[in-house]
Amino acid sequence: MEDYVEGAKIFKTLGDPKRVMIVDMLSCGELCACMILDKFEMSQSTLSYHMNLLCKCGLVKARNKGKWTYYSQNAEVVKEIEQLLHNITSDTEDCICKGNNIDTCDAI
Amino acid sequence: MEDYVEGAKIFKTLGDPKRVMIVDMLSCGELCACMILDKFEMSQSTLSYHMNLLCKCGLVKARNKGKWTYYSQNAEVVKEIEQLLHNITSDTEDCICKGNNIDTCDAI
DNA sequence: ACATTATATCGAAATTTTTGAATGCGAGGT
DNA sequence: ACCTCGCATTCAAAAATTTCGATATAATGT
Q1: Which of A11, A39, B23, B103 is deepest in the core (most CB within 10 A)?
Q2: Would the Cβ of A52 be found within 7 angstroms of any atom in strand D?
Q3: Strand C positions within 7 A of protein Cβ atoms
């Protein structure tokens, strides 16, 4: 149950095209906020808001160095969300229908 | 660019624990709405709303049979979203940073 | 010390999402 | 014809999200 909540939080954060693009940009490696800001038409405070969401859900890490904040993907969480997406879209052992997490399942 | 928008729509739809659970339930196969409703504490209209969202983003298909509506995962879209998630989280050729979709990328 | 630069935070407005009650509607059963 | 069942749609209210301007903070350069 908690898995679903945590996962949904990450999916929700990815539920915005700009944030998806930001994550994609970070797949090449670390970037500071100003680099990311250059690529978008949004205010600095708005970007900061989006980066905060990405960090809060765990998908992105922030590293401070002097005036700059460098952002990068959190490999562990990336693995976890890929795993969850795979779990919920394939007939695995720990599926809800197998009786886990939910009482019964009178499937057809 | 359109890929990000379409993908974000799917992620956004998965941005709710109940909808994640519903998708998981469907990984075992087709289920009618009433079966799904049994597992949750929500009104029938609310479930209908959620199922509509899942269908609109393409992740779920609906099939009508008599009084019932059977829902199932859309395998193609599932594949697409898994692919997208993988693309944005790994250093692939078509990454934004490689110059695609966005003008330049003066990474560090 | 002062100005500048990079980023975070606050506040407020606009928009979107979520929910259930009420209602509509088509399919079967009697 | 009428009733019931499964589901969709409409409506309105509540809650959450998104955005930017203004302001704060902290580091760095002169």
Answers
A1: A11
A2: no
A3: 5-11, 17-23, 26-28
